[in-house]
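cache lookup: miss for this entity combination. No prior model stored, computing from scratch. Input as submitted by user K.M.:
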Amino acid sequence: ETGVTQTPRHLVMGMTNKKSLKCEQHLGHNAMYWYKQSAKKPLELMFVYNFKEQTENNSVPSRFSPECPNSSHLFLHLHTLQPEDSALYLCASSQTPGGNYGYTFGSGTRLTVV
Amino acid sequence: AQSVAQPEDQVNVAEGNPLTVKCTYSVSGNPYLFWYVQYPNRGLQFLLKYITGDNLVKGSYGFEAEFNKSQTSFHLKKPSALVSDSALYFCAVRTGDYGQNFVFGPGTRLSVLP
């Protein structure tokens, strides 16, 4: 375990469903990130939270809605997704905003939209 | 703008032979350089980083990387490859500026053949 825990590990959802991905870290880190990893494509940064405040939204469609209630928890709320949203969603955290010392990643949630 | 290139999608090497996974970068300012490894259905794991100091940095699992400022490269190396090294390898860069996020390369798939 890396210290960053993501649940669930696998999720299958229909296009009309609403679901949430959860990320939790108890490393004392102050920044958290959501990345999308699709087959044959580079890692895509989706959202950045520094000290619980969203500092970056990389033109992500509104069907993805992040929430960061505190520095230890990060959620990604999903609704009316499309099949092309199927991917591995990775959460990461870093001690400092931007991660001078690197990121710690969770194991990811494998999302399949049917 | 920051960018990272990994010119090889795939690298094949025989077990016991030395391996090199290439990375070149472009940043304005001093680079912070990282290597991560991803095993199937897992998140990214930190291998090593260069921030300052010796150009040759040593990391986990016997890996090392050499920072070459004139060639803007940060190639990952290992003297003797193991089958268990087979994975997806990502190079990442950022500057030391506050708020800058990582830019990841597209990844290189390493296959070590027995």
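stored under new cache key. The interface with chain A takes residues 32, 34, 36, 41-46, 49, 51, 90, 94, 96-102, 104-107 of chain B (CB under 8 Å).
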